[in-house]
Amino acid sequence: MQNVQKAKLILEDGTVFEGKSFGYDKSVAGEVVFYTAMTGYPESLTDPSYTGQILVSTYPMIGNYGVPNDREEDGIFRHFESDKIHVSALIVSDYSFEYSHWNAMKSLGNWLKENKVPGLFDIDTRALTKILREKGSMLGKIVFDGNPIDFYDPNEENLVSRVSTNDVVTYGNGDHKVVLVDCGVKNNIIRCLLRRNATVIKVPWNYDFNQIECDGIFLSNGPGDPAMVQETVENVGKAIDEVKPIMGICLGNQLLGRAAGADTYKLKYGHRSHNQPVLLTGTDKCYITSQNHGFAIDDNTLPDDWEPMFVNVNDQTNEGIRHKTKPFFSTQFHPEASSGPVDTEFLFDDFIDNIKKYKKQ
């Protein structure tokens, strides 16, 4: 094993874990959360929804297949979900300094260093995850000797404004014109829409997209507390007065819910995994889904003209909503996966079908 520097992970309750660095050697602070996926760390680390968070992997060995070639296709990276790493830091049990994969171009450690993101290994992630499950996600900080830092709560600021585009950007030249409200969009959402003959117009989170002539509106995933994204909620509120099709994912689900008049709340430790089971309400159909969120819609506050669309089988929390008469629906999970199962990608087809019906009116 290489010579490595030691550092400490300190939780807000005073718990201390000592580990070894395999990333960038700097002190950072954020919200400590865990995810249970066995693979897919290049996609997860580049997911903007992880902004402000120190990510703990429960799968014991990370890094064995390196990091893929970051070539672009259709104006976006092929193997990453954005153009940079968004996690504040990565915590693992066993880091593989040696990697092997046909598409690997560098090690995970080198990639973290290039992005100036710390990574710690030799941490008892099982014990750490038990704490987070029992007490809930909590603030934490990684401290290197001689570099003290204060705790930082990312949920107290509008993280969406940090990750959203600043400009209107167009992808593709398909028949269906879709406005994508970028609250921290994952690239695979754009890929899924492009494969379905869409022209995707990506706009900033606080852009009044109602002024754009389009066939449908898409509300993206993103980080943080949906209550902090009021300007988007107000613009979505204008859109639901019409009948133009709307689809949302993750934070987009929460924003659509709040625009409809529902409340949102913070989950104890959130859902971050590839294996969350969700039930399509009114049926016996259960799907395995990829998820990454810390907030949820309170079903009890949905107005009468809205209803839950999916429910989490594990804890009965909301996993999606739909309007009873208009072509609006959203999911708390990620139908586009990346990484994770693609069992529910058909929901993009449902969105496009709604657009086709709308255009015939």
Automatic annotation (TrEMBL):
Keywords: Amino-acid biosynthesis, Arginine biosynthesis, ATP-binding, Glutamine amidotransferase, Ligase, Nucleotide-binding, Pyrimidine biosynthesis. Residues 1-176 are annotated as: CPSase. The active site is at residues 250, 334, 336. Its EC number is 6.3.5.5. It catalyses: L-glutamine + H2O = L-glutamate + NH4(+); hydrogencarbonate + L-glutamine + 2 ATP + H2O = carbamoyl phosphate + L-glutamate + 2 ADP + phosphate + 2 H(+). PANTHER family: CARBAMOYL-PHOSPHATE SYNTHASE SMALL CHAIN, MULTIFUNCTIONAL TRYPTOPHAN BIOSYNTHESIS PROTEIN-RELATED. Pathway: Amino-acid biosynthesis; L-arginine biosynthesis; carbamoyl phosphate from bicarbonate: step 1/1; Pyrimidine metabolism; UMP biosynthesis via de novo pathway; (S)-dihydroorotate from bicarbonate: step 1/3. This is Carbamoyl phosphate synthase small chain. It comes from Prolixibacter bellariivorans. It holds the Pfam family CPSase_sm_chain. Gene3D superfamilies: 3.40.50.880, Carbamoyl-phosphate synthase small subunit, N-terminal domain (3.50.30.20).
